[in-house]
Amino acid sequence: MADPTVKDRPAAWPSPWPYDFPVEGKVPAAPDKVARIAGVEPARPVAMTRRSLFGPAFLGWGAFLTAVGIGKLGLVRFLFPNVSFETPQEFPTDKPETFARDTVSETWKETNGVWVANVEDSIIAISTVCTHLGCTPNWLPAESKFKCPCHGSGYYMNGVNFEGPTPRPLERFRVYVGDDGKLWVDKNVKCQVEQGTCADRKFGIPA
Predict the structure, then answer these.
(1) Is the residue at 24 inside a domain?
(2) Residue 65 and residue 62: Cα distance in Å, rounded?
(3) Predicted TM-score (pTM) of this structure
(4) pLDDT single digits (tens) 135-187
(5) pLDDT confidence band for 119 (50 / 70 / 90)
(6) Of 70, 90, 125, 205, which has the highest C-beta tally within 10 A?
(7) How does pLDDT run across 53-98, given as a tens digit for each residue?
(8) CB-based contacts of 181: which residues, under 8 Å, 6+ apart?
(9) Distance of alpha carbon 18 from its chain centroid, rounded?
(10) Residue 63 falls within a domain, yes or no?
(11) Dist CA 86 CA 66 (whole Å)
């Protein structure tokens, strides 16, 4: 005999969740069924291989060993002193008789920073550094003077200043005749005209 209460029982409202109704007699797992209904393939498990495991390890060790190698190179470089390739402070020029009277030789201007001048019956070595701000003046034979291109300082042939902002004459260096008969310049020893130290005979030889 049928149960009379079945007719009066309302029908169940369809659930919006696809996993609320049985599929093949079982309740499926929600994420898998939702993904399939949405048309998205479920994420596959990450497969761990030997290459994927050891690759990052090799890269890390490689970076570490490279850093260690660079550090050792720096340590070895620190143990060795710096080598100076500056021009010698004492050098030969030419025989004294080759310097004509009242002339300035620019042969050693670029290489050694020195002018050799035969002026006032004496051969002297004059510094090419302007005493104003350290520029390099130019020798103007037509005007018989050194002229600084930076701020207009002017010097006579003997290096004494007479125009422009320079505060004092150009410096001079020690000169002597070596065993080879040449005029040698020693930049380790210098004098300043304004202080009267250039009167010493070691800063000029008779022309």
Answers:
(1) no
(2) 5
(3) 0.60
(4) 999 999 999 999 999 999 999 999 999 999 999 999 999 999 999 999 999 99
(5) very high
(6) 125
(7) 566 666 777 788 888 888 777 776 666 666 555 778 999 999 999 9
(8) 95
(9) 70
(10) no
(11) 35
| Percent of the chain surpassing pLDDT 90 | 57
CA 152, chain centre distance (Å): 32
* Residue linked to tokens 């007699």: 25
**Contacts (Cβ under 8 Å, ≥6 apart) of 173:** 114, 125, 126, 127, 185, 186, 187, 189, 190, 191, 203
> What are the DSSP calls for 97-155, one per residue?
GGS-TTEEE-TTHHHHSEEEEEETTEEEEEE-S-TTTS---EEETTTTEEE-TTT--EE
State how many domains the chain has. Answer: 1
CATH of the domain at 133: 2.102.10.10
Is 47 among the domain residues?
Answer: no
Assess contact for 124 and 172: CB atoms under 8 A. Answer: yes
Question: In Å, what is the CA distance from 7 to each residue of 1, 13, 14, 79, 106?
Answer: 13, 16, 18, 102, 126
181 secondary structure, DSSP code: S
Q: Does residue 119 fall inside a structural domain? A: yes
Which is it for strands 145-147 and 138-140: parallel, antiparallel or unpaired? antiparallel
Taking residue 173's Cβ as centre, other Cβ atoms within 10 Å add up to 23
